[in-house]
Amino acid sequence: MYPQRPHISFLSRLILLLPLLLLMILAPDQLAWAQSQSTTQSQQNQAPPEAGGPSGDTGVIAVPKKKETDEPPPAPPAPKFKNPEGMPNFSLHVDVPEVVVDVGVLLQKTHQFVPGLKPQNFRVYENGVPQKIDGFKRVEAPITALLLCEFAANSYYFIYDMKNAAWEFAQQLRPQDYVALMTYDMHTQIVTDFTQNKSQILQGINMLQIPGFSETNLFDALNESIDRLQRIDGQKYIILISTGLDTFSRITFDTILKKVRASRNVTIFTVSTGGMLRALMEGRGGMMASIRDMDYLQADNEMRTFSSLTGGMSFFPRFEGELPDIFQTINASIRSKYQIVYRPSDTKQDGTWRKLRVELVDDEGKPLRFQDQKHHPLKYELIYRDGYRAKPEVE
């Protein structure tokens, strides 16, 4: 016999099933909410990087964005060199200056420039050490000259010849030339200081109208001219246009002769004035005429002496038409140069004085000799600066 199951009413059953019914009603909403929370949490955990990009079943794939400015990639590092063992680091800096020497080659008798020489004909020595010539050419060098003119109240013909000669010289000047104009009678007067303006020289010549004194103190004027030029470096020239007469100079002829002989880098060219007047008056009788002729002959001899001692030339024109050829000869003698370029073997930049010496040799290395058409030997002279000062070292 089995025991009897207790009786449960319908209302009791309904109360028992109510939680289950509520759970069945609310379950879909809870499931959707749970899935939403799960998806949000997953998106937060797997957010794409800042660069952005698509995502798929395998996760997020980041695609870099293009930058606004495309910068070039950085340069590779410089290669590192390692010195051998025992060798320290060092740096090498070579600064060898070039020395330019202008050399004039003139025949002593005619003072003509000697053309046609080659680089192998020159030997350059610096402090006695031979140097290697790197450059060589013939050039027309600029000049530094003092135009010294006699301007005295002695004769109109002398003044006329002087102005014509000075004008002809000034016409042949070039833009690179430095020229000064100085006149003298009893005293000297600087009409135009050294300038490269040819028009100033021509204007100064035109200003010479009325002289002050009749005395011609040539020796004093030449002495002062040499003193002024000694302050200028390089080769200088004096173009003396004068009768050659001296009246009341404070110094004597012997004194000015020693001064001219001792002058350095100064060459004197002399041009005589009054040639036509002297030719007309020469040989006329009378005691005073003979003394006058002797004075002019002595003046000519002094002019020749001044030029010969300094390697210049003397000219004694009688006609105005001779002047262009005379000054063309002077220009050719003082402008034509051989330019030699070398790098000194002594590379020290210590500001010391370097003495130069230039020689001419033949193809066999022997002293070069010249001959005229009759095979007579011709003596020549070399005109160049005797040295230079090395560049001082900059600390």
Mind explaining what this structure looks like?
The chain is α+β, with helices and mostly antiparallel strands. The protein has 2 domains: 99-139 and 337-389; 140-335, Rossmann fold (3-Layer(aba) Sandwich). It has 8 helices and 18 strands. It has a 6-stranded mixed sheet, sandwiched between helices. The protein has a 4-stranded antiparallel sheet with strand order 6-13-3-17. The protein has a 4-stranded antiparallel sheet with strand order 5-4-14-18, with no helix packed on it. β1 and β2 (59-60) form a beta hairpin. The chain is elongated, with a radius of gyration of 51 Å. Mean pLDDT is 81; it is low at 50-54.
**CATH-level-2 architecture of the largest domain:** 3-Layer(aba) Sandwich
First-residue to last-residue Cα separation: 133 Å
DSSP, total strands? 18
Radius of gyration: 51 Å
CATH superfamily of the largest domain: von Willebrand factor, type A domain
Give me the CATH fold name of the largest domain: Rossmann fold
Q: Give the fraction of residues assigned to helices.
A: 25-40%
Strand-residue proportion: 15-25%
Shape: elongated
Average predicted local confidence, pLDDT: 81
Sheet with most strands: strand arrangement: 9-8-7-10-11-12
**What structural class is derived from the secondary structure elements?**
alpha+beta
Q: Are there runs of 5+ residues with pLDDT below 50, and where? A: 50-54
For the biggest sheet, the summary is: 6 strands, mixed
CATH class of the largest domain: Alpha Beta
